[in-house]
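Can you give me the bound-state structure? Components:
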Amino acid sequence: MEEVNYDKKLDNPNEDLNTETSVPSNFIQEIINEDNESGKYGGKVHTRFPPEPNGYLHIGHAKSICLNFGIAARNNGLCNLRFDDTNPSKEDIEYVESIKEDVRWLGFDWDERLFYASDYYEQLYQYAVELIKAGKAYVCDLDSQELRDYRGTLTEPGKESPYRNRTVAENLDLFARMRAGEFPDGSKTLRARIDMSSPNINLRDPVLYRILRAHHHRTGDQWCIYPMYDYAHPISDALEGITHSICTLEFEDHRPLYNWVIENLDLPAKPRQIEFARLNLTRTVMSKRKLLELVKNGHVRGWDDPRMPTISGLRRRGYTPEAIRNFCERIGVAKANSTVDYALLEHCIREDLNNKAPRVMAVLRPLKVIIDNYPEGKVEMVDAENNPEQPEMGIRQVPFSREIYIEQDDFCEDPPKGYFRLAPGREIRLKHAYYIKCESVVKDEATGEVIEVHCSYDPESRGGWTKDGRKVKGTSHWVSVQHAIDAEVRLYDQLYLDENPGEDSVLNPNSLIVLNSCKLEPGLANAKVGERFQFLRQGYFCVDKDSDGSHLVFNRTVGLRDSWAKKS
Ligand code: ATP
Ligand code: MG
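Here's the bound-state model for the whole set.
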């Protein structure tokens, strides 16, 4: 095992990193500046974050949230939260509640501006009637296969539907009867009458409404026709007075349709769609469909499993809103797709917790050490700094006694070259306490495994320095046996073995390792769910919600070693 001088590295793993704190300008801000100068929206900036409540939010959504709420805040504007709930078969109230919780937790506030596309169903219907009256929409009887066949391809134009030239009166009658439930699911659609030979397939008479008998989590069984996203979205934006409708790149080809809807209806506002590149992260799948599969197939323990890239998973894992917001600032906003290294996200949480998290000692895989020349029954309280980065966080006192635990890794009976921790005849420093030297070991007779290490200590070395100035290379953390608190600690690794997981990527069988006999310093007895600590030399940990009065559970948020800092 590689030896690191933890005394130097331990407390500030990110020491020599420059941190970019200023907010970079981006192309969206430039568009807004132009609009402000031309007076297009009278200087107003109004954005929205429009999740579909068909799953929990993930870190990609955090980018969109930070962008939309951030742009509004920086421009004295407003940002709405709008549920884009036009697909009832996949949506659920559980998702609505989780999304609200996550946006709030990230630190954003929509005040009273909480909207649902389903609130506009009646208006959307009336606007469709207007399109029909203007000869710009028609009821079509082609089924979904026929619709596909008629649509053409990228290289071939589409074919006009035989129903395209129905009269306005006939269309009005049929559309009303679609709403009234006279026709079976999928038997008819309402389509925009645009251009079947458009090079942009989205403009080839796109479907605006479909017949679908599905219970909606808000409107119940009131509707059996539902509007399509491309139709509902621009109108919802306009009804809310949105100025800049920011969405991800895959909607770029839909922008002409967005604009067609805005231009062909008498709407209260004319929002502008702007696309940016979605966040992709190494080691991670981000689509809600795939995340839902992981949950449904029992590969994780729910949407908030600490291995999930969901906001609720990251929260449970111990991430802070500050770290996630900082991450979103750093990755910036671009027009071209790219993949961000997961290590940058880890770097951001380390950087935040380095300043905030109190240091404590916790032994994850305990090995008993008996200090034979230390008086039996004696307990000394030794001073331990809570955070060397933040002296104002003060010191605490930790009990030291004759029997302590150290990490199994910190002892080696037959040490390889370069191993500087405890070994027969070797001396090390116990953090905050004394120098100890290994005198002998006790082994399990059956297995040969070392079960006790016997040491002597130097009473003159209290605090970790000797009178004669002799030096040791190894420093171990420790916990007093009689004072130790038991805990379960969960260590996490990436869910997939691949750097860029695809459809047939294999799950990592070791993505969760549970350690059941961890020993913590006694001050942690009252740790509250969600509280975060640095376990010296082990990383950052946070108390999991599975804890109760008699059983403490910790999640490892992230280890100390910073691979991103090394790469950059
Ligand atoms: P997914 O593909 O993960 O299911 P989605 O785009 O269907 O996501 P929505 O609920 O429709 O999810 O997304 C709400 C908003 O969040 C949209 O504006 C969408 O563009 C944005 N968004 C979703 N995923 C990302 C991402 N990875 N990076 C940036 N923004 C995203
Ligand atoms: Mg979507």
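A couple of observations. Confidence is low (pLDDT under 50) at residues 1-23. Residues 52 surround magnesium ion (ligand 2) (CB under 6 Å).
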